[in-house]
Amino acid sequence: MKKNKLTHSGNLIILGFAMALGLMSFLVYKSIKQEVQMVSVNYYEDELKFQDKINAKENAKPYYDEFTLNNTDDILQIQIPKPLCKYIENGEIQIYCISDIEQDKLLKILPSESGIYQFITKDWKKTEYTAKISFTNNGKQYLREMVFLL
Question: Whole-model pTM?
């Protein structure tokens, strides 16, 4: 009985290694050509911005409980601490929708005596949101993040 030399077990093992090597080479080639979005050319400036964000959160910590957010009857009411609301500069509330980027909102806030800001939400999607309240007061930046359901 004569065996075919092409289907000999040694040849099949070599063929398997060759196919595995070819697949690995292809995957390495594809990974090299893949553009990485997270790498920034201006990483130093980005790191400074990130540190500013950390500092702004630390500045808001003493007032943590005074920031309130209430959502009733299609109205979103946000309360900013009274010691901070009178001299707000560059104030904004960024509303991020967790499930739909199309629902994101940017709301500007101005100085106020009461610190109460109200927004109509009847046209907003009923889902989870994150509110990022950021502003400057007397040269200090403040940032407070709050999660809420609509």
Answer: 0.68
